[in-house]
Specification:
The chain is of the alpha/beta class. The protein contains six helices and seven strands. The structure holds NADP nicotinamide-adenine-dinucleotide phosphate (NAP).
């Protein structure tokens, strides 16, 4: 079992993009990080890349397809037995990630960010029915800080690198939320570091 003073984090969909950048920043900050990926080969390759930056010693791999309940149970058991606690969960896995060039998927992925940012600027997030699952979870678990974030238009494979914000900048916004104090806001939707009406 792990030491109580150590800090532990899990990042989902972390073999590339925003997730991998978040893993790097958490590991640099002293966390022991579980880098999860749905594909074991892609996950282990990501860990290999981290060894070049000297961070691999703080990162462990665990397979996780977020859409697979048995995978989720297995990860929960791993955390329980190996660490006995979890300080931060960054649920980053993007189900829209496209590995095959598909014009319609690309347009849908890009368009989903742009209409969201437009609704945010116009103050119509709530009336347009953007998901409120975060608020439901936050109410159910008042001892946790549970928030979600639109990090901006980040340059990753999700948008075929058409984004205008570097991945490190996006990851820094994620970490800002992850490091909220125990009495900080919960159940909110942040857009780039700003809280919305939600
Ligand atoms: N980039 C942006 O502009 C932007 C804007 C708003 C929100 N976001 C959100 O940011 C998150 C990260 O996206 P990204 O831009 O870094 O995209 P990305 O580079 O395409 O990465 C997506 C990651 O999610 C993983 N993934 C997809 N389905 C999964 C599943 N069922 N289980 C586990 N992992 C899964 C992918 O794994 P594989 O490699 O195996 O496919 C990949 O590691 C997503 O939730 C996305 O919606 C991004």
């Amino acid at each position: 079992m792990a030491e109580a003073t150590k800090r532990y984090a899990v990042v989902t969909g972390a073999n590339k993009g925003l997730g991998l950048a978040v893993v790097k920043q958490l590991a640099s900050d002293g966390f022991t990080v579980v880098l999860t990926a749905r594909d074991e080969k892609r996950g282990l390759e990501a860990i290999e890349k981290l060894s070049q930056s000297g961070l691999a010693g703080s990162v462990v791999f665990h397979q996780l397809d977020v859409a697979n309940p048995a995978n989720i149970d297995s990860l929960a058991e791993f955390i329980k037995t190996q660490f006995g606690k979890l300080d931060i969960l960054v649920n980053n896995a993007g189900i829209m990630g496209a590995t095959i060039v598909d014009t319609d998927a690309y347009k849908a992925a890009t368009a989903s960010v742009i209409p969201f940012l437009k609704d945010f600027k116009e103050g119509s997030i709530e009336s347009k029915g953007w998901p409120a699952f975060t608020r439901v979870l936050a109410k159910k678990y008042p001892d946790f800080r549970i928030n979600c974030l639109c990090p901006g238009f980040i340059k990753t494979d999700l948008n075929f690198n058409a984004g205008n914000v570097p991945v490190e900048e996006g990851a820094a916004k994620v970490l800002k939320l992850a490091f909220l104090p125990n009495d900080g806001p919960s159940g909110f939707f942040f857009v780039e570091s700003e809280v919305t009406g939600f």
